[in-house]
């Protein structure tokens, strides 16, 4: 078995935090290698070292048996290491072909050779069996198509090692199956694939080997996956026997005045005749496939889109919400976005600044917000959410994805919202943090907060929601009252999604 890449003893320290502690990873040709670990375990840091974003403080990297120093993403690319990030790095206004060849544009007599760009794009798309016009603007692609174009881009750079970071986070199950068929094809062609994911069912479906990181160390190193059960892997990740968080059976919410009521609403985004409501202390799940219109509906309710018909009522009064700030100030509605890196947190600002931003007006004295006031807020919510940080002055961009999600939630908890819209709360979140998020959402509802929960994770919706509204094609396909019995519940929901069932 040929080793394409070997990393030994990799160490990386940030102020107050050792992100990697002599971690090891070996990637073989013709293998899919799962890289697993909880949030903060060091996965993202390891990926960034292998792709030249970070320089290690110690350790060695060998590519094809030779030591390399990956001091930039360009050097990593030249060494044959490609990466497909969870947040796609494509330019929407450029064509598929231009995106694929962007990092090494072919030229002729000093000018960009359009013919060679198209030919190279067709070659790379052909390797993936992707029937896509190279001249198509990337902005017109589906999430699954865009993800495959990212892989084609890596193939254009002749990447022998391909790192996939949460590749199915925004894909439907059918789209994920197609992506993994491509992964298997690349594996069979001799590529080494590193798969970073929190979806263990996908790991067992496609991976051959695994490495598990815990607290920056590799506690399982390049082992054959067949030797491990699902529970074995979980136990290695958390370092002890794992017990899923079991939520207490929630009380039935008696009929009363809704905290948020949407009646026969149509929107400029394409929604038609949307009617739903959520009461204080209730969790309403909004489930559907990617593209069903759930996030677009939430953003419209927050003033980020236009309502063309119907009414929105908050706490018994008709609401005219202009933007997210207006939603918070006038109606005490908060929004935990699914896009944490671009909208959920200010990556280049401190954790203190991120958590306190929603309550600056309360903390200000004579127009100024004191650091001490911000820090008191941070202390309360970082302890409550178990956010791993070196200090309140640490930049949010230095946190793991799961801890960034916690910071995104903390700012709305600090604002003491009456209605909280939570969009895909556990995408990219590890098992233990996922259970903690579920417990926290249940606690919020028990404290009287009305929660509108948007999730593509069916077990998550069934575990948390009191009622589940199913969306299809920008409409409400039906509603199911949660009986807490997973199998009949999931069947009823799936029937609604595919248009073969009625509301329960």
TrEMBL record:
This is Ribose transport system ATP-binding protein. One of its GO terms (cellular component) is plasma membrane. Residues 5-240, 247-498 form the ABC transporter domain. The keyword Transcription regulation does not apply. It comes from Longispora fulva. The keyword Metal-binding does not apply. CDD domains: ABC_Carb_Monos_I, ABC_Carb_Monos_II. Pfam families: ABC_tran. InterPro entries: AAA+_ATPase, ABC_carbohydrate_import_ATPase, ABC_transporter-like_ATP-bd, ABC_transporter-like_CS, P-loop_NTPase. Keywords: ATP-binding, Cell membrane, Membrane, Nucleotide-binding, Repeat, Sugar transport, Translocase, Transport. SUPFAM superfamilies: P-loop containing nucleoside triphosphate hydrolases. It is a peripheral membrane protein. It is found in: Cell membrane. One of its GO terms (molecular function) is ATP hydrolysis activity. Coiled coil: none annotated.
């Amino acid at each position: 078995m040929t080793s394409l890449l070997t990393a030994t003893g990799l160490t990386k320290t940030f102020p107050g935090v050792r992100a990697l502690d002599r971690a090891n990873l070996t990637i073989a040709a013709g293998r899919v290698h799962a890289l697993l670990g909880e949030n903060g375990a060091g996965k993202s840091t390891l990926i960034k070292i292998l792709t030249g974003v970070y320089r290690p403080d110690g350790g060695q990297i060998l590519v094809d048996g030779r030591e390399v120093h990956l001091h930039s993403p360009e050097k990593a690319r030249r060494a044959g290491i490609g990466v497909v990030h969870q947040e796609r790095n494509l330019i929407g206004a450029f064509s598929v072909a231009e995106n694929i060849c962007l990092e090494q544009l072919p030229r002729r007599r000093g000018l960009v050779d359009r013919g060679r760009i198209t030919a190279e794009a067709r070659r790379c798309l052909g390797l993936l069996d992707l029937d896509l016009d190279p001249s198509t603007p990337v902005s017109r692609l589906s999430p699954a198509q865009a993800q495959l174009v990212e892989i084609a881009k890596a193939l254009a750079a002749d990447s022998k090692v391909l790192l996939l970071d949460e590749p199915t986070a925004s894909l439907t199950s059918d789209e994920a199956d197609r992506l993994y068929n491509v992964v298997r094809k690349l594996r069979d062609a001799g590529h080494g694939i590193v798969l970073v994911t929190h979806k263990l069912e996908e790991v067992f479906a496609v991976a051959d080997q695994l490495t598990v990181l815990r607290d920056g160390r590799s506690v399982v190193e390049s082992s054959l996956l067949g030797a491990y059960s699902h529970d074995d892997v979980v136990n290695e990740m958390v370092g002890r026997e794992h017990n899923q968080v079991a939520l207490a059976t929630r009380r039935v919410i008696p009929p009363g005045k809704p905290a948020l009521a949407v009646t026969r609403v149509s929107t400029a985004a394409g929604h038609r005749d949307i009617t739903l409501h959520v009461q204080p202390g209730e969790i309403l799940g909004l489930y559907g496939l990617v593209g069903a219109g759930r996030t677009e509906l939430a953003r419209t309710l927050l003033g980020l889109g236009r309502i063309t018909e119907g009414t929105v009522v908050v706490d018994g009064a008709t609401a005219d919400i202009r933007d997210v700030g207006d939603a918070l100030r006038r109606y005490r509605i908060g929004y935990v976005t699914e896009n944490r890196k671009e909208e959920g947190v200010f990556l280049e600002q401190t954790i203190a600044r991120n958590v306190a931003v929603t309550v600056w007006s309360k903390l200000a004295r004579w127009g100024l917000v004191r650091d001490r006031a911000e820090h008191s807020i941070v202390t309360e919510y970082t302890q409550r959410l178990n956010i791993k940080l070196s200090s309140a002055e640490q930049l949010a961009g230095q946190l793991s994805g799961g801890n960034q999600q916690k910071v995104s939630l903390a700012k709305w908890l600090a604002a003491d919202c009456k209605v909280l819209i939570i969009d895909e709360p556990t995408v990219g979140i590890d098992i233990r943090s996922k259970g903690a998020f579920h417990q926290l959402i249940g606690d919020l509802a028990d404290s009287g907060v009305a929660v509108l929960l948007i999730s593509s994770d069916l077990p998550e919706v069934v575990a948390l929601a009191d009622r589940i509204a199913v969306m299809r094609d920008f409409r409400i396909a039906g509603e199911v009252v949660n009986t807490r019995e997973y199998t009949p519940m999931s069947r009823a929901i799936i029937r609604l999604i595919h248009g073969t069932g009625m509301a329960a």
